[in-house]
Write a structure and sequence with these properties.
single chain, alpha+beta, four-stranded antiparallel sheet, 18 helices, 29 strands, elongated
């Protein structure tokens, strides 16, 4: 599971269920004998000077063999003596002798390609099956009598969903990164773009988890852009996240050849482009903030002023200044009126608050009613007749904008209705908030709610142990531990003991092994004896029998074992047959 990270990539898709299998294609060796040792050495230099020239798609491997002889390897199986002689520079050999083929299998069993080696990708349904294939098949001989071995390595792949506009903006920085990661770490970065769609895909893949994670981090750093900031931190002025700011930001971006992304989820501005342009845009944003700051004011309400505002005073303020200029915030501990306007507007509000007596207001304005008995209904947030009214599941009417404000500023959950002077207490449902929130606002509310949920349930959920990684997993019991493969930092962890995965061992056994390894061989031997832990007869890996019958299978080498006598077998059937015949039970 994941929370939103500090980049502009969407949901990651980690794929660990693939492996890469590669091996050298079949070849043969020729031994060339020359008339003199000088001719052999001269021929060696001339063959090496051929450079990248190939014979039947193969670059030859040549070695000097004392005396008067050369060994020529990596020859295609179809190479004959006549063809070899035509390819070789002078002086010609006096005799050609063929060595054995590198593989015993016939050539028809292999792809008929000119390349020196064959590479295939196999995909499994689960990551565990891929890990098992690497354990069992890596470095296995292609033939019993061959020295050539098959290389089976994990294929680590991660896909990022990225805004097409951001991907286009970072292309000048991304192209050199693509080249560098391949040259230095053999990690590939590929883009999959469709100009008609809002999002594109970036795939990062290679054989090393650590190197893929390193490349992913570099790509995400580019995707994160430069967060516009002033001297005190990121610029978060609400003006920049309203539709009305679009023309200002578009003009500013065009003037300095910079792309400005409004990250509504985190309320920050991300800048993409050249260093000079970004610096100029940031200065302009800071200057605009200073200008905007002069137009925002806060009036804190004491209990008497709050009571007056709720009973109808705020309605008078809205009537005097307009609803777009004032906001009553009673959700937080500090009750206040937020004003977007001039100091003259603030003075007018103060005059209303101080000039009208609370008692007279009770006679002038009816007590707020939502009973449906014909009396006027007021929004429980701004205490004015609802604009673009929305009725909640519990039956109270809100202004659409007020319900949005309550949802987006919430820091405690579940959200509660403020109807009946905040005495309603009913939960605001997902159906309610979906009526008024945009997709991004809804996602942001969900993220905030989820974070609150996780923090209150630390016995059930655990964050990934990698610093700054925001992924999390459900904790499992020690009897059934699972492996969590993090798609953020690409690390793996046991979901029970929160240590490195330990396939085939319980958490307790793994802890004991680690402790014994730290304390020395004597402690290890004592622990194994006390817990009946035995070494695999074939590969020596410690095996603990936690439960079940006496047929065991080594998680490392996959050999089947009779736990009674520790004899080994090639299959489960052979093991059970032996146990029934020799030991009389299973």
């Amino acid at each position: 599971m994941q929370l939103g990270g500090e980049t502009e990539s969407g949901m990651n898709r980690l794929q660990l269920a693939g492996v890469t299998c590669s091996w050298f294609n079949p070849s043969k060796v020729a031994y060339l004998q020359y008339e003199t040792d000088l001719n052999a050495k001269r021929a060696l230099e001339r063959i090496k000077s051929l450079g990248s020239k190939q014979l039947i798609g193969r670059k030859l491997d040549v070695m000097y063999q004392p005396v008067r002889s050369l060994q020529v390897g990596n020859l295609d199986l179809n190479t004959n003596e006549a063809g070899l002689r035509r390819f070789l520079p002078s002086p010609p050999p006096t005799k050609v002798t063929w060595g054995p083929k590198s593989h015993r299998r016939v050539y028809s069993q292999y792809p008929k390609r000119a390349k020196q080696n064959t590479k295939i990708i196999a995909k499994f349904s689960e990551a565990e099956a891929a890990r098992k294939a690497v354990k069992e098949m890596h470095e296995t001989r292609l033939d019993p009598d061959s020295n050539d071995k098959m290389q089976v390595t994990p294929l680590v792949s991660i896909k990022l969903s990225v805004s097409s506009r951001i991907l286009a903006a970072i292309q000048p920085q991304l192209d050199p990164l693509v080249d560098r990661t391949w040259r230095t770490d053999y990690v590939q970065i590929k883009r999959y773009e469709d100009l008609s769609k809002q999002y594109a895909q970036v795939r990062i893949f290679g054989q090393s988890r650590e190197r893929v994670a390193k490349a992913k981090s570099a790509v995400e750093k580019l995707l994160a852009g430069h967060i516009a900031a002033n001297g005190n931190g990121p610029i978060t002025d609400p003006f920049y996240f309203r539709p009305s700011s679009k023309s200002f930001l578009d003009d500013l971006a065009a003037a300095h050849c910079v792309f400005i992304h409004q990250d509504l989820r985190r309320s920050v501005l991300r800048l993409y482009g050249g260093d000079t342009g970004i610096e100029q845009v940031e200065r302009a944003l800071v200057a605009k903030c200073a200008e905007l700051k002069e137009s925002f004011h806060t009036i804190f309400l004491d209990p008497e002023a709050l009571a007056f505002a709720i009973k109808g005073g705020f309605r008078q303020i809205v009537a005097a200044l307009g609803k777009d200029k004032v906001k009553l915030d009673i959700i937080n501990n500090l009750k206040r009126i937020i004003v977007e306007g001039s100091t003259k507007d603030v003075d007018q509000i103060q005059e209303i608050l101080t000039s009208c007596a609370f008692s007279s207001m009770e006679t002038q304005i009816a007590v707020l009613s939502i009973s449906g008995d014909g009396s006027e209904v007021f929004c429980p947030v701004c205490f004015t007749p609802p604009e673009a009214p929305i009725k909640t599941s519990c039956g109270h009417l809100y202004c659409s904008s007020c319900l949005v404000s309550q949802c987006t500023s919430a820091d405690s959950f579940p959200l509660k209705c403020l109807g009946e002077g905040a005495a309603c207490g009913s939960s605001i449902t997902l159906a309610d908030v979906k009526k008024v929130l945009s997709g991004i606002e809804y996602d942001n509310l969900f993220q905030t709610s989820l974070t609150s949920y996780l923090r209150s349930r630390t016995a059930k959920f655990q964050y990934c142990s990698t610093p700054d990684c925001d992924r999390f997993y459900r904790i499992s019991n020690s009897e059934k531990p699972r492996t969590f493969d993090c798609d953020g930092c690409l690390s793996s962890v046991c979901t029970s003991c929160h240590q490195n995965p330990h396939d085939g061992l319980t958490c307790e056994a793994n802890k004991a092994l680690i402790k014994a390894a730290m304390e020395g061989d004597e402690e290890l031997a004592k622990w194994k004896k006390d817990n009946d832990v035995r070494d695999c007869p074939k590969c020596g890996v410690p095996i603990e029998k936690a439960f079940g019958c006496n047929h065991m299978e080594c998680i490392s080498c996959r050999i089947h074992i009779c736990w009674f006598c520790m004899k080994t077998f090639g299959s489960a059937g052979e093991t059970y047959k032996h146990m029934g015949r020799t030991h009389g039970n299973s």
